[in-house]
Every structure is written in C-alpha cells, then in structure tokens.
Amino acid sequence: MEHVTGDPPPFAERVLDLVERIPPGKVMSYGDVAEYLGEGGPRQVGRVMSTWGGGVPWWRVVRADGHPVRGHENRCLSRWREEGTPMRGERADMRHARWQGDHQ
Fold first, then answer.
1. What predicted TM-score, i.e. pTM, was given to this entire model?
2. 49 contacts 15 by C-beta, under 8 angstroms
3. Which InterPro entries match (predicted)?
C-alpha cells in the first residue's frame, strides 16, 4: 500500500467510511462498493483502497470472483479465517459472504 500524505478526497472518504461498516465475516467486491455509493467504478475503488485503505478492514474488499487482494493473499486469508468469512477454497464465497450494505 502506498504512503500518501494529506487528506483523502471526498470520494475516497466515502469509500473508506463504507469499508469500515462492512461487518466481520462479510465482504464486498470493488464493484459492489462503487454500486452502493452510486459513483466511481471498481478501478476507482481499487485506487482508493491501494492509496488510503491501510487503516480500514481492507481484507473485506475483494475481487468480483471472491479472490483476495493480489499481493496480500496470506494476510487476507488469515483475517477471513479469524472472522469466520464463508469461503470456497481460497476465495470468499460471494453467495454467503457478500454484504449488501446497511439496507439488507
């Protein structure tokens, strides 16, 4: 994860606020986050997470197929096991682990 000085822009703040609300044992894909917020897309969410996501539960944001963040697989899988995240092999079971947000 990059080290960036200064405050994140408003979009990044909204992404990080949402990621902080994802409950233990649940995940959202990058696209889920963008869709929930109604702005940006998976790449923009990924950029926010790679730049400012170190202080939030980053392991709860996954690729659309449920695979963990590239380069952080072992730490991610360890966190999922601790939190009881539903898994299929070494990826999140999106059918059971996906969080739909506060309105589910």
1. 0.90
2. yes
3. ATL_DNA_repair, MethylDNA_cys_MeTrfase_DNA-bd, MethylDNA_cys_MeTrfase_DNAb, WH-like_DNA-bd_sf
